[in-house]
Structure prediction request, 332 residues.
Amino acid sequence: MTAGGVRGSEPGYRLAAAGREKAEDERLDLLEQLFDPGSRRLRDLVQPGWRCLEVGAGRGSMATWLAERVGPTGQVVATDIDCRYLARLDLPNLQVVQHNILDDPLDALGPGSFDLVCTRLVLFWLVGRQETAIHQMAACLCPGGWLIDEEGDWGVPGPIDPIHPLYAGYHHAFKNGEWWASRGYDPFFGRKLPTLFERCGLHNIASQATATVVRGASPWTRWWQQNLDVIRGWDLASGTTETPDNEHQALTAPCSDPSVWFITELLTPAPASDPVNKQRSRLPWSNRDTPDPNPRNRQASGEPRHGQPLITRLWPQHFSGAGVPEGPRRRR
Prediction:
């Protein structure tokens, strides 16, 4: 869950850095460690010279990586409503813009000019306005450009062994995700992302939801506990939700106990394209008959690694005379 792309309204973003910068740095360190490898694989389609937009860029780890991918002939625009972390970045092809994707004019970004627009773990927080955000991001795409998002079902995480002494207390407090619903959030939002993309007129939608089983005291459970602690602090400060101390202890105790096996969120990454080309483009995970041209993303056999999608090029099927796929066509 990054430093989001919206401000203010309820239920809103509850992990803001203001007043807790050191703790937020530690939380974001873990987030990047956990999620950046998969995010890089999803974005491996990016080519030199592309123009990319990262919405809710947080500390800018993915924006920095994109800037390296597009090279000196490309450009990356990184946005957030709080740019305290992004302001540290100093790359010639990376522009930082303080921007709210829901409420601020798109003219500040350049609508219709991006080959790739991407975000991660942001839409979950925009309760009731997710479709508006997707429409806004899609409006930034050039014809044939790609929108990539990664969202989670945050009602899924928890201990998996019913006989463990900490299992019952956690699930009694978490209530199959009702802990989130009582705060106004959809605990199973991630799985709905492809449907929202389709409603917003995007094409060539693909998704593959995955979860992982990890031990307590692992990087993921430490990160999960930090999220629970921050949201409890927000609850107490705002007086909006009461979580008794014993319930919070029941939620956090398994996170630091290495004898507990935990299932993580069900993460749904979803790429989709601007509908410039009515022919079906190669999908990123389902075209097993056309292996990824980048050998870093596949085994020697051409099959995907366990639990990892096979990434293929996501360009619309326009070909130049040399037989090389052309990238997205930018609106002028």
Notes: The radius of gyration is 20 Å. The longest strand covers residues 141-153. Strands lie at 51-55, 75-80, 94-98, 114-120, 141-153, 158-159, 213-215, 261-263, 266-273. Confidence is low (pLDDT under 50) at residues 1-9, 277-326.
